[in-house]
Specification:
2 domains
């Protein structure tokens, strides 16, 4: 589908493609909303609806000859949420977008990591997985880590498997085991860990991905 903005206008004009793309980009939309809200939000919150509306608006307004689409969409979503807060006499608990470049680098990085964690927590919640579940689900032995890494690679490289995971919110044990060579016993024991790392890698969280890459070593 669209990459770096290419094809955005075509997708926006096709209701079926638009819906598919919105579902694909839900983590990004949610991340933008969380950055403005400065805390956890869900799809039942006003911020989600406004961020979603802003994303669609950005798709319709986007000029494919001008820069990266997600950068543009992030600004549109931010502006719509700030308008919402002003209209309802509410304030965002974080700095305006114009102030981000003025923050000390260390603070900005910590804030981004915090926001990535919040966004990943929201994604995992749809699988009924809590962050505190991950340590007990994480592999300890080197051989098991290697097996989990192999399962995650196969899962991310196979669209049918990732689609099944997202649709049913369950790891496709049988098919994943058959294609990766990893036993269903290992997949079941480390199911939450595998799902968490797969979502983290697929959604390209800039900072958290660096931590996840340790499993490939």
């Amino acid at each position: 589908m669209a990459d770096k903005g290419n094809g955005i206008n075509e997708i926006a004009a096709d209701p079926a493609l638009l819906q598919q793309y919105i579902v694909q980009q839900e983590p990004f939309i949610l991340s933008c909303a969380i950055k403005c809200a400065g805390g956890y939000i869900s799809k039942s919150d006003d911020e989600w609806s406004i961020a979603l509306e802003g994303f669609v608006k950005a798709m319709n307004l986007y000029d494919e000859n001008r820069g990266d689409f997600k950068s543009f969409a992030g600004v549109v979503i931010h502006n719509m949420l700030m308008d919402y807060y002003r209209q309802h006499n509410r304030t965002s608990v974080i700095l305006p977008i114009e102030a981000i470049d003025e923050m000390p680098e260390s603070y900005g990085e910590q804030a981004e990591i915090s926001l990535e964690i919040q966004c990943l927590e929201t994604i995992l919640k749809s699988y009924d997985i809590k962050f505190e579940d991950l340590p007990s689900s994480s592999p300890k032995a080197k051989k098991t880590k290697k097996a989990c890494a192999q399962a995650i690679r196969v899962l991310l490289d196979n669209k049918e498997l990732t689609d099944a995971l997202k649709e049913k919110k369950q790891l496709p044990m049988g098919r994943l085991s058959g294609q990766s060579g990893v036993s269903t016993k290992i997949l079941d024991r480390h199911r939450k860990y595998i799902i968490a790392v797969a979502e983290l890698m697929e959604n390209e969280f800039e900072y958290l991905a660096e931590y996840a890459k340790a499993i490939w070593r």
